[in-house]
Amino acid sequence: MYNNRIIALCALSLFFLTTCNNPQQSGASEIETPVSVRELKPIGSISNLAPTSGTAIANLTVDLNSEMSGLYKLQTNPRTGRPYKMGDAVKKGDLIIRLEDSEYENNIRIESRKLQLEIAENEPEKQRALQEKGGATETQIKSAEVQAANARYDLENAFLSLEKMTVKAPFDGVIVNLPHHSPDVKVASGQPMVGIMNYASLFMEINLPESAIGSIQVSQPVYITHYTLPYDTLKGMISELSPAISSETRTFKGKIVIDNAELKLRPGMFVKADVIIDIAENTIVIPKSVVLSSRNRRYVYVVERDIAVIRNLVTGIENDDYVQVLEGLYENDQLIVRGFETLRENSRVRVLR
Questions:
Q1: Which long-range contacts does 152-156 make (Cβ < 8 Å, 24+ apart)?
Q2: Facing residues of 68 across strands?
Q3: Among 7, 11, 104, 294, which has the highest number of CB atoms less than 10 A from its own CB?
């Protein structure tokens, strides 16, 4: 028994001696994980968009035909000094084509109708003067007034008949179609003369998914893009919405009005439209790829004194790439955007510069 105690004491002494000579490190220094960070600034913006597409159509468009037969006279564009051609801008009332038919114009008798109106308009005054002397009745005065009105209508109708020999722009626009007719050759009535469009404002008919019916309303803004305009996004607005859902496509119809004042889009283009469901300006926006999830919570890592710290998030608007942070992150926080995948709470990190 005594020998066993001696052996135990010797063993214990040897253990303490060894420990003193080789002090144990507290679990070897923890390895620092290299990470990349981004300092947060509340200067971002984010939108939640409902994408759709369609064909842009001019709001104002007309194809004018000849109302009468006559010799074809293409007029000179006063802005270019040359005959009108496709692509020319026109103003409302511009005379583009005139048809001449002397026999028809003579039958209208413009000048004689002007004289008849002048005579008829003087007659009621003469009858009133006679009435004061007892030489005319009230009936005769009324009859003279009727003749004057009829003469006025006859002259107006004559001008309307003469107007049928002209082709004028009914609104400001651009000539998009100008069929060729030989000058001074008679064309029949009903022939195509000119096509005009005003596409400073366009519209497009769209189909939206059933799931969006509760979040899209009339007057909602829209982003309009086209592959020929890689650096331009035009503005549009929802102008009409159908309340009915198609049982075949599970979509509902709508109409978008597009502001195209600079004529960057052309009628007939197939364009992409993103309806803005929600938008937030001057807010904290972070890449969706850095947000982690666990047990119904969303969180990210930030760096505090070379330690990775978890921040639980309350998020707002999000799209395919980014998410708005309402709570959990603050201005100047060092958000870990690379190297976070293997981190744990309170892991030591080394920020890569």
A1: 152/117, 152/120, 152/121, 154/113, 154/116, 154/117, 155/110, 155/113, 155/114, 155/116, 155/117
A2: none
A3: 104
Provide the 8-state DSSP code for 250. S
Q: What is the pTM of this model?
A: 0.69
Report helix, strand or coil for 179: coil
Amino acid at 7: I
Tokens of 67: 């109302």
Please give the residue that has the higher pLDDT: either 114 or 134: 114
**Residue 289 pLDDT exceeds 70:** yes
pLDDT of 318 reads 87
Residues in the chain: 353
| CA dihedral angle for residue 128, residue 132, residue 138, residue 142, rounded to 10 degrees | 0
Tokens of residue 202, six digits: 């366009």
SS3 at position 120: helix
Token pair 């930030």: residue: 302
Confidence of residue 29 (pLDDT cuts 50, 70, 90): low
Side chain identity at 233, as an amino acid letter?
Answer: T
Terminal Cα distance for the chain, rounded: 67
Find how far residue 187's CA is from the centre of its chain: 42
Write out the H or E segment, with its range, that includes residue 277.
strand 270-287
Question: Are 29 and 306 spatial neighbours (Cβ–Cβ below 8 Å)?
Answer: no
Alpha helices in 34-191 (DSSP H): 102-108, 110-132, 138-163
163 three-class SS: helix
Evaluate if residue 192 carries a pLDDT over 90.
yes
Which domains are delineated in the chain? 33-46+281-351 (2.40.420.20), 50-58+199-279 (2.40.30.170), 60-194 (no CATH)
Q: What angle do CA 246, 247, 251 make, to 5 degrees?
A: 40
